[in-house]
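Risk register update: the risk of archive-format incompatibility is retired. Evidence:
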Amino acid sequence: MPAAVSFFEQLGLPAWLAWFEISFEVVVAACPILGWYVSLMSVISHPILVVSMIIYRGNGFPTGGIELPILWALVQVAQAPLRPGSLRAKAPDSCRAFRARRHRGRLSACGFRRAWAAGETGRSANPPRAGSAPTQDDSSLAPLRYRAYAVLWLATVVANVGTWMQNATAGWLMTTLEPDPFLVSMVQVSTSLPLFLFAIPAGALADIVDRRRLLIVNQIAIAIIVASFGVLVYQRRATPLTLLIFSFCAAAAAALIMPAWQAVVPELVPRQHLQPAVALNGVGINVSRAIGPALSGIIIGAWGTAAPFWVNAAATLGVIAALVWWHPPAAAGQTLPPETFLRAIRVGLRHARYNPNLRAALIRSAGFFLFASAYWALLPLVARHQVSGGPALYGVLLGAIGAGAVGGAFAVPALRRRFGVDGVVVSATAGTALALLLFALAREPVAALTASVLAGVSWIAALATLNVSAQMALPGWVRGRGLSVLLTVMFGSLTAGSALWGKVAAHAGLPAAHVIAAVGALAAMAMLGRWKLQPGSAQDLGPALHWPAPIASEDVDGDQGPVLVTIRYRVRPEDRDAFLRAIKQLSYERRRDGAFDWDVFEDLSQPGTFMETFLLDSWTEHLRQHERVTQADRALQAAVNRFQIEGSPEVSHLLSRGEAIPS
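Archived output:
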């Protein structure tokens, strides 16, 4: 161990980083023996071993040291498919345990390889029938048994390693070109702003075009943009302006596919595995966040500042290959024409406005990310000026945030069961505030590293909980648009926060900016607590398809409109107030499924007679409304219809004829 410490010091790296690396090796070695996350730890270790090979490459073979990471990498490849506990001194009867779990509708890690070998992965993952109880899997890694999900997950992890290398390099490059705090924070702004500007249009695209083709085209564009900027950096022609333009363009291309990436998850796994799949996506992002920045510092030292950009472009090719390989199940036959782009945006925004569970997630997201953006925007300055470190330290701090997020992702399910979704977000906000205070006080690497780990744990706890809350609140037809609204709020908060905290740091200093952000996070936590997050797991958002087809006496052009739908109810006078409360809840369903106006009227000459009315843009939009009604919406309608005292409510469809009036 002293030799390893000495070797790190010869490379210009701090001694404590050597102890961190040694500790990581011990953990990786202990995991298969203890039966803890064998496959995951094997995947995490490979990029680090590749870096070790790069470091030792000049020492020769077979006695120069490079043979050790090569051998260790081969061992990790061999043990990656092993089930947990395979190498323990005393293993349980895993096959008997598998049979018992299978009879209970579960598949544990001991069946993981069999599922892959037998093809029990399915290229489609249809949700269970309405009314059926979905089975639960105890394993957080259960989604990885679906081959399409596993391949795409692994490919995106590798690509995200390259992205985080690029982001860390861009932040550090700006401190070299122009160390002004505001310009350094503008790198974060240029990365977040496109996601704020383009997320909603991207969500509309994700819902109306082929998502797979959209992903492939944009990944090709990202590879070209990143490789081109690498050439500029290599030729020493990069300036602060070109760096900001590049960051904006790369982020814009990524923004156009982010809603699509999130929207395809339910196509890869069944509904009962959606929550662990979303959490695993967070793990993948944060594994890459832990590895990428650390790799960037080493690669810059070995091959120059342009190298991380080229590595990222190469890594993107793996995602393109995985998407070309993946063939999602054919969509059900469409009987209606696709939505137009602008109308799809308008309908998506209306749905978000009248979806109370999604709205709560949006409000809580804004309150969290606005203040959490402070340490992301100011971390390069903390590493360079406050702790007096170099690019390696900056990469390690970013890596520590990612490592904390990876550990926190596995703790989130237990925290959610113990404290509920609201409790997890409150705890994450408090942890972020504490991390900001530690960043304000940090003068040594150890303090900054502690703050980074705590920030990472808090970040993933809030991000995963808010994302799952939004996912579970959205039906399939509007999932891309709904998630794009969440991304808009998230990155809008990050963009505004990054610019704000950069200005505050420029005028008041780094410590003051972190302290003010911490106080603001705690204040937002107290003020926004009234918007309760709902996990939505009990809601059945599958299509109900129970509305009868509307009857028309003549052929109607789908673009004709607007369409007025009226529903006449007869209720007992004593049920009047209860009926109005119930139909008020139903009004949200009408609006989020396509109606742009809604009202209810009472007949003054006939007490207990009410007329519900709602307007839609066109006849086709009303037909889409029939397809959008979910099983949860059907329950709302049943709660209103139970007040009807004579038969069924009377429904009428009226088509506007204003344009046909003779002049």
